[in-house]
Amino acid sequence: MFSIIESFRSALQSIRAHSFRSFLTSLGIIIGVASVIAVVSIIQGLSASISNEFKGLGANSLTVRATTPFEEEMQGKRNVLTLNDYDLIVTHLDDISNVSPAFGPFGDFGTTVRHAGKSTFTQVTAVTAAYQEASQSFPQYGRFIRNSDDQSRRKVCVIGPKLRDKLQLPENPVGKFIEIGGEWFKVIGMNEAQGETFGFSKDDYVLIPFMVGSAIAGNRNKLDIFISFTVNDIDQLEAVQGRLTGLLRTAHKLKPGQKSDFKVQTAAQLGETFEKIIAMMTLVLGGIVSISLLVGGIGIMNIMLVSVTERTREIGICKALGAQRHHILLQFLIEATMLSLLGGLVGLGLGYLLGMGAAKMIPNFPDAFVPWWAIMMALGFSSAVGILFGIMPAAKAANLNPIDALRYE
Predict the structure, then answer these.
(1) Distance of CA 48 to the CA centre of its chain
(2) Which residues pair with 185 in a beta bridge?
(3) Does residue 367 contact residue 46 with C-beta atoms inside 8 Å?
């Protein structure tokens, strides 16, 4: 025990005596750990933000969309969900409510919207009254689209707060008229703000009645819609998902083993999908950046070998005074480990500051977050690098002959 304490004391004394060289020795570890922590903190901050976004979507909500494999897209094919699928779901699927079809009458990207000389490009979606509950979108001013608006094909709309600001509409825009794709619509409501994701606003949109959108799109039978609904009993979520999949596969005449041309997902599953992607990104990017830690370890081994050469006479004196081989081995091994560990601590703080700074520089990007496992991994990996690359110099020092060491000039 005494030899371990003495080895720690000698290691600290040596690091203090050669503080600048110690700093340069640890620089590789500092840069390596700082890079890993910066990357991990940014990705994990993004992951935490995405998880919070999906928590607000409702655990009992389901959405079904058409999917097209990349190979088929390259051949110009595109799978769609039609109103026949919507009718099928409404007619044959029990234990669900707020079934809402929706689509973009001006395409996937939207169209130009104008008001009083101001114009902007925004996303336009045609929805039914049920979309309010299915998407958890509630008005801040005015009201949402009603069934009567849909049935009478009234040219009314609900906008997001971002669009209000872009068109410089009043704080309460209800009653104002805006031009959407060449048609005039009356604003009957403005939804509550939902914030931004990845720097993209979720409040820059227009919602119009579904039948009005169908009339604008022209061919009702070729609409590519997505369908949202809520499951009445959350315990039946998987059962409803299975029945829906079977229903649509039968309707689309898909053979056993053939891949579905649609995807049914819950908000939780969407969140899990994103979390898997984020975890993979963390692993890959962290692994790439951690290569710099190996470079730092080689730097420590190189400097420690030089240190053994410089301190050959000191080692000879210690051995002449009775120091055993394991005492010398332990002293140099602890010194290499402490150099690496101190570099890891400095890199940890520096990496967090870099992550915070990078996240602040990107507009609307979530704050960086360092999970506890990343801290433990950084410190553990730093210590392991110190031990691994400190073994050779320590063994060289321990194996020195005391007579030869005392004669060394």
Answers:
(1) 7
(2) 178
(3) no
The per-residue pLDDT for range 82-122, each reduced to its tens digit, is 888 888 888 888 888 888 888 888 877 788 899 888 889 89
117 Ramachandran zone, left/alpha/beta (phi>0; psi -120 to 50): left
pLDDT digits (tens, 9 = 90+) for 162-211: 999 989 999 999 999 999 988 899 999 999 887 766 556 778 899 999 98
In order, the DSSP letters of 163-203 are HHHHTT--SS-TT-EEEETTEEEEEEEEEPP--EETTEESS
pLDDT mean across residues, the chain: 81
Phi-psi region of 89 (alpha: psi -120 to 50; beta: other; left: phi over 0): alpha
Burial of 397 (0-12, 13-18, 19+ CB in 10 A): buried
Give the global pTM.
0.57
Tokens matching residue 247:
């229903």
Question: How far apart (Å, rounded) are the C-alpha atoms in residues 284 and 278?
Answer: 10
